[in-house]
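Customer escalation, tier 2.

The customer says the design service returned an amino acid string that "doesn't look like it belongs to this structure." They asked us to rerun it and document both sides in this ticket. The original structure tokens are below, unchanged.
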């Protein structure tokens, strides 16, 4: 990690669900040679993500584990409710309005929120304002009508 501030990317889900978007982002993260930490606010949501990463594609899966599992530090993708970066991840994925915490240990943070949920949308807007006021390195990504992601801010 350089002395530069980590990039914090907001992903505004409108046409796709978390289950559709997260596996692709995690694949790209692993292709970069990075490890990932997926932080969720509730164990049952992480259970859903856990199941999805095993089954999202017929011909493959994404290697991952839970923070509570033995050898959590060896996992390329770690699912956790806590802020502990047990696997030395370079990428942090925030789902379900979970706490961002300190981000200095990461290269990039992804804040993924459902724009169809008014509470999630308001939470993301407030988080954006707070981070912008703190001079964070922000980017905002939105899905086009064709389903591609484009940087909107």
């Amino acid at each position: 990690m350089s002395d530069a501030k980590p990039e914090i990317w907001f992903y505004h889900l409108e046409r796709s669900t978390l289950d559709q978007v997260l596996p692709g982002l995690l694949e790209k993260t692993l292709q970069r040679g990075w490890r990932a930490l997926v932080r969720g606010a509730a164990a049952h949501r992480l259970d859903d993500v856990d199941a999805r990463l095993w089954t999202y594609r017929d011909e493959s899966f994404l290697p991952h584990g839970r923070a509570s599992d033995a050898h959590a530090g060896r996992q390329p993708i770690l699912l956790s409710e806590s802020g502990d970066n047990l696997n030395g991840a370079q990428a942090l994925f925030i789902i379900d309005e979970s706490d961002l915490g300190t981000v200095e240990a990461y290269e990039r943070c992804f804040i993924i929120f459902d724009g169809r949920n008014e509470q999630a949308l308001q939470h993301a807007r407030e988080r954006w304002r707070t981070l912008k006021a703190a001079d964070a390195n922000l980017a905002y990504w939105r899905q086009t009508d064709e389903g591609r992601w484009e940087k909107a801010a």
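Tier 2 assessment: The sequence is consistent with the input. The chain is about 30% helix and 25% strand. The first strand starts at residue 7 and ends at 13. Sent an explanation to the customer and offered a walkthrough call.
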